[in-house]
Specification:
Blueprint lengths: L1 H26 L21 E8 L2 E8 L2 E6 L3 E2 L2 H13 L1 E7 L16 E7 L2 E11 L5 E4 L6 E5 L18 E3 L8 E5 L4 E6 L5 E3 L2 E2 L1 H12 L1 E2 L2 E3 L11 E6 L3 E8 L6 E6 L5 E5 H4 L6 H5 L3
Antiparallel strand pairs: 1-2, 1-6, 2-3, 3-4, 5-9, 6-7, 7-8, 8-9, 10-15, 11-12, 11-17, 12-13, 13-14, 16-20, 17-18, 18-19, 19-20
């Protein structure tokens, strides 16, 4: 009798295992433990890539290459950091599909395919669409979950870090460097400030003077800043044509560069910067702007 009960228990257990198999195979995730026939969505020649579109909740970003330079052309028109674009192209060229982790549409959000997280990536060669896919959440290491536009198959993609495409702010793509004026090229700098106007000129010996007074090391700091002058942030609003700027700096370095500053009535105060000939409006922290906007006494070291 005991033996018969044991056989009965084994029979029930076997039946439960068979039922569980069919339930999970029909409704659950299907994972692959075999070699994928498809290892790539598309083959890419990185030297020919000339446009990348990234559509996600932060906004639609379009990166375009023209005359050898990468720029954003939407939602703003501005230079981007070349190394960030190069890294994105490298990921697009080198990523491989490792395995299928799900074919179940109801599991999409589990792998990061929801409106607030996923992004649609399109890449072009010679102006023609080369490939398109959707990137979801991160997987282990530098891998990510990806899928085709018209498929429920969700893959793990090796060598595809979603942070190469999705930034905490779309402004991270922008090149914060505004101008680079070689120190030795500067001939004069004119300061038009609310309380005074003065000019620092270079003499034949290469030294700068304000009138008959040597500009000294304080002015040298301004020249060093102009060699790599960068912004704190960007403003995409427009100023009216009759805007009255609070401070102006005119720089003669063979070329003419004009900085126009507008102090904002905010707490803390900031400065908006307009560079003549540049459509972009920049936003600077007050302390950073003050490194340029120095009074004549500050430069001369006078009390």
């Amino acid at each position: 009798m005991k033996s018969n009960k044991t056989y009965l228990y084994f029979a029930i257990l076997a039946a439960l295992l068979v039922a569980a198999y069919y339930i999970t195979s029909e409704k659950g995730d299907k994972t692959s433990s075999y070699e994928l026939k498809e290892k790539k969505f598309f083959e890419l020649d990185s030297a020919k890539v000339d446009k990348i579109e990234i559509k996600y909740t932060e906004g639609d970003l379009v990166l375009s290459k023209s005359s050898g330079e990468w720029k954003a052309v939407s939602p703003y028109d501005y230079r981007v950091v070349p190394s960030l674009v190069e890294k994105a192209i490298s990921s697009l060229k080198n990523f491989n599909l490792e395995s299928i982790v799900s074919t179940n549409p109801s599991k999409r959000e589990t792998y990061g395919f929801n409106d607030s997280n996923m992004a649609e990536i399109s890449v072009y060669e010679g102006g023609a669409l080369k490939g398109k896919f959707i990137i979801g959440g991160s997987a282990a290491g530098t891998s990510s979950h990806v899928k085709k536009i018209d498929s429920d198959n969700i893959y793990i993609a090796d060598n595809l870090d979603r942070t190469d495409f999705i930034k905490s702010s779309i402004n991270e793509w922008r090149d914060k460097n505004i101008v680079s004026i070689p120190k030795m090229a500067v001939n004069s700098v004119e300061f038009i400030l609310p309380d005074e106007t003065y000019i620092a000129k270079k003499d034949t010996s290469g030294r700068f003077f304000i009138g008959t007074d040597s500009a000294g090391k304080n002015f040298d700091g301004i020249l060093n800043l102009l060699e790599k002058f960068a912004t704190t942030n960007f403003k995409d609003s427009l100023l009216s044509e009759d805007t009255k700027f609070t401070d102006v700096i005119n720089i003669d370095w063979g070329n003419k560069t004009t900085f126009k500053f507008l102090k904002t009535e905010t707490t803390p105060a900031k400065y908006l910067l307009k560079v003549e000939g540049d459509k972009q409006l920049y936003e600077l922290e007050e302390g950073y702007a003050k490194n340029l906007l120095k009074s004549k006494k500050e430069i001369l070291g006078q009390p």
